[in-house]
Design brief:
The chain contains 13 helices and seven strands. The chain has 299 residues and is of the alpha/beta class. Strand 1, helix 2 and strand 2 form a beta-alpha-beta unit. Helix 8 crosses helix 9.
């Protein structure tokens, strides 16, 4: 099987309980990754049909092999924002549930060549898909100091953004910053260490979000995805930082106020201490679930 790093899915039990409302329904894992949620759901609900979607070609290759003999799973490569087109191409009008797990996969996080990792040196890439044109390298080496500071502050919530952006611009006057360890070392020299978390962590998060237009993609995708739910269908979203969660929370609140359905999670669902101890990567996960209103406004 393709050499792909798997990881435990966050809050798998809660997702299964809140997402599945019809055991013979059609469900989409629109960010399937290494197939953790997808595998559990397909095994637990053998009468249902599951569609696994991912934008990452490496993930799709792995998923296709992993689920090759699983009759109730189909794997498709694509952006979750294009879910209406994907489903229409399969002649599926609407589905009973959709899952979005917005976290970066363990494979992406640890793969040096993908450029997401602070620990494993590699090119400053950070693209979820090779089809995307803009890389983190281009952002780091071409944006103005003000633009860089804005990205680091907005998407990384890094209070030392101006200081870091200035250091980047000064460094690239000598030579372009080409690798993850070059950037990580520069940030560490600029702001110093405090605590166990690497000082470049927020900078890397910000660049990843900007490179992949993650927040814009989510803003544009949620209304489109919502239209693909049947009456009574459910949308479950797992986010990993406050900016994503804020967007999801606001959409769900607005939809409920507009009479389009109900928030099944009035309070955000978080992993238990036991799960966090067994799966540390789940510690920042937040789950929200919305049910499209039965008999309500579907527009």
């Amino acid at each position: 099987m393709t050499n792909y790093i798997e990881h435990k899915p966050a809050m798998a039990k809660q997702v299964a309980e809140l997402l599945i409302n019809i055991e013979e329904g059609i469900y989409v894992d629109a960010t399937a990754g290494s197939g953790g949620h997808l595998g559990l759901l397909a095994n637990t609900y053998p009468e249902a049909f599951f569609i696994g979607v991912d934008i990452d070609h490496e993930a799709v290759q792995f998923l296709a092999e992993k689920f090759a003999s699983v009759t109730n799973v189909r794997i498709i490569r694509g952006n979750y924002a294009d879910l209406p087109e994907i489903l229409h191409s399969m002649e599926i009008a609407q589905v009973d549930g959709i899952l979005l797990d917005l976290g970066i996969s363990m494979h992406q996080a640890l793969s040096a060549q993908r450029g997401f990792s602070i620990k494993n040196p590699g090119p400053l890439d950070m693209r979820f898909s090779v089809d995307q044109k803009v890389t983190a390298y281009e952002l780091v080496n071409s944006l103005s100091e003000e633009q860089l500071a804005d990205i680091i502050y907005r998407y990384g919530e890094e209070r030392r953004a101006r200081k870091i952006a200035k250091a980047v611009v000064e460094a690239r006057k000598v030579k372009p910053l080409e690798t993850t360890d070059e950037l990580a070392d520069l940030v560490a020299r600029t702001v110093g260490y405090s605590g166990r978390i690497h000082p470049a962590t927020r900078v890397f998060q910000a660049l990843r979000i900007a490179t992949n237009r993650e927040l814009d993609n989510l803003q544009e995708a949620l209304p489109r995805i919502f239209q693909m739910l049947k009456d009574g269908g459910r949308l479950a979203v797992i986010s990993y930082h406050s900016l994503e969660d804020r967007i999801v929370k606001q959409f769900f609140k607005t939809w409920e106020e507009e009479g389009k359905g109900l928030r099944l999670t009035k309070k955000v669902v978080k992993p238990s201490l036991e799960e966090i101890s067994e799966n540390p990567s789940s510690r920042s996960a937040k789950l929200r679930v919305f049910m499209k209103g039965v008999g309500g406004n579907e527009n």
